[in-house]
Amino acid sequence: MTPEHATLARLLERLTSTEVNLTALPDQLLDALARVVPWDAYSWAAIDPRSLLPTGEMGTTIPFPSPLLFEEQELIARNHEPGNLRSMARGGRSVARLSEIVGDRKEQSLIYRHILHPNGLEHQLRCTLALDGTHWGQLHIERRPDRPDFSPSEVALIQALVPHLAHALSRRIITEPGITSTSTPPALPGVIVFGEDNEIDSISPEAEHWLREWGVSDPAHLPVAISAVVGAARARADGHSDSIPSARLRLKTGAWLHVRATHLARPNSKVRTAVLLERGSAEQVAPLIARANQLTARETEIALLVLRGLSTSEIAAALFISAYTVQDHLKSIFEKVGVSSRRELATEIFDPHYQAA
To answer: Strands 41-47, 246-250: parallel, antiparallel or unpaired by DSSP?
Structure first.
């Protein structure tokens, strides 16, 4: 690594490990990255590590109309977009150039045909942002035709910086929210029914509540999480995918939202897709919080059992390990999250999210 690249790595590490304005962090990271890997456009999105679906939080410098967002997400769910995040994640690949994925046949890519080429962009580098086996987001950076494609050395540099970028995204979901909501969450799930044309056929008052909490002012421009679960539900119904049409995300108010979808069909009737919006439960939120705090898979298991009130001996029996091993894991957990007891683990690390949820 060159001295300039080493300086960038130290900058990224500082940005992702100190108390900074996490709302502006992605822009700071991208600005730092542009110093050594020039780009003309970018798009990034946080994803749910369990389903690998985007959670609705994203940034881009490229126009992305809502109808195309639905089309793109359904093609990705059906694995029709070459080199999509899911295929890269399953293949253990974190960085790839579009030219490597499709060769000279870039027209095979919907993203190239409908997004890159119309906006004067030719080259793209795709990144899956994973840390310790957990995927937190995706990043695409693009260049115009008058620039060269991303070089192997630039690809290698991005590869080395992926953990820093993934760490930045994971930290965002466990920070304090900037807005306080005064509204009472609805007791029932919200429901939005979409037609085959991806237009809203009907919507419940509870769904309208959650869209307002989400910051959606125009139903014609919905967050990517909704188009993603709709596409996944349709692909699952057709047998083209086993992806779970589900995404967990944290709103700016601090509330956790669980977004799900299912395919509806009746004989001699047009198909519909129903999206459910409901408050995220403790069971859904806790594993995400544990992983965002950099707990390992085993530490996450133990932390969740602690939250259920199991003793050391009960945890040892449940996981077929010794009580001493459980204590060693607990010590590591406490050090990582900055607490000194089981009670503090619950009240300071997990409970604030449940209260917001």
So the answer is: unpaired
Instruction: Specify the 3-state DSSP secondary structure of 282.
Output: helix
Distance (Å, whole) CA 23 – CA 312 = 39
What pLDDT digit, counting tens, does each position of 140-166 carry?
999 999 999 999 999 988 888 888 888
Measure CA 331 to chain center.
Answer: 29
- pTM for the model: 0.86
End residue of a domain, out of 138, 172, 206: 172
pLDDT tens by residue, 175-226: 766 566 667 889 899 999 999 999 999 999 999 999 999 989 888 889 999 9
b/e sequence 43-71, b meaning 16+ C-beta within 10 Å: bbbbbbbbbbbbbbbbeeebeeebeebbb
The Cα–Cα gap between 94 and 229 comes to: 23
95-97: strand order across its sheet: 54-60, 41-47, 134-143, 123-131, 95-97
- Judge if 97 and 145 occupy the same domain: yes
Count how many domains the chain has: 3
